[in-house]
Specification:
Length: about 260
């Protein structure tokens, strides 16, 4: 296992293992993590739902490595961890002005939900980097994002990392390669991914096996795509899984299906 609390490096995998308190009382231990992210590293950090792989959204080599580490289809869309609503405004075209007559405004619902365990799918702005990768025949292709999932986790460790980086991060949840849907124990993450090029793991204890609640807002009125840890009653009266966007369909799949086929 990648050793101890001060950010020591595992001699076998080269992965840095940083153990912190889940209440954020020893955030100074995150210093090596910040340097690794700034230098193009891919790591695992806690959120208010599951642990997540993260990297610099603007570093194409780091993004490619994250796809390789998790063995994802290179065209699979990933979410963005945001610091504030300003980040959401930057990476999306914003919230619709209003939904159906007589309903609470979408922005007010978002303000009630965030920070919190929700993924909001919104139309992507031109600030979301295009995803470039090589096809099987060796040709390079680039795809711009029409939609993007954004998160603003209510977790002191995740928030500290984002704040000190002064930047958003690309993310995808951590899962096992076997039949189990989620990987919850950080030490196992080192064993599973450390030798694939993972730079670090931030261990804040075991997280519950509960993903985020996903809300599709690309069609104007919000649509609950996946009920997760986030309280769906905040979004009462919205549509349920009808007329969802293509990105929302990815989130709506079981994680096993999304991992192997999308």
């Amino acid at each position: 296992m990648c050793a101890a609390k001060g950010g020591k490096r595992n001699s076998d995998s080269g992965c840095v293992y940083v153990e912190v308190q889940d209440d954020g009382s020893d955030l100074w231990r995150l210093d090596p993590v910040l340097k690794l992210l700034q230098n193009g590293g891919v790591g695992i950090i806690p959120t208010d739902t599951l642990y997540a792989f993260v990297c610099d959204i603007n570093n194409s080599k780091a993004v490619d490595l994250m796809y390789q580490i998790k063995d994802l289809n290179p065209s699979k869309p990933l979410s963005i961890l945001c610091r504030t609503f300003s980040d959401i405004d930057y990476y999306t075209t914003g919230f619709p002005m209003n939904g159906s007559a007589g309903t609470t405004s979408v922005f007010k619902l978002a303000k009630q939900s965030l920070p919190g365990p929700f993924t909001l799918i919104l139309p992507a702005s031109k600030n979301v980097p295009a995803r470039c990768f090589k096809k099987k025949n060796g040709d390079k292709t680039c795809k711009s994002r029409r939609e993007v999932g954004v998160r603003m986790p209510d977790d002191p460790i995740c928030q500290e990392i984002l704040s000190r980086l002064d930047a958003a991060l690309l993310c995808t949840s951590v899962r096992a390669d076997d039949a189990s849907p989620w990987m919850l124990e950080p030490s196992f993450m080192v064993d599973e991914y450390g030798k694939r090029g993972l730079s670090f793991v931030v261990d804040a204890g075991t997280r519950p096996a509960s993903p985020s609640t996903v809300i599709d807002i690309t069609q104007g009125d919000p649509i609950v795509v996946r009920a997760g840890k986030g309280d769906c009653t905040i979004w009462e009266g919205v549509h349920l899984e009808e007329g969802v966007s293509e990105l929302a369909k990815v989130y709506a799949e079981t994680e096993e299906e999304a991992y192997t086929t999308s």
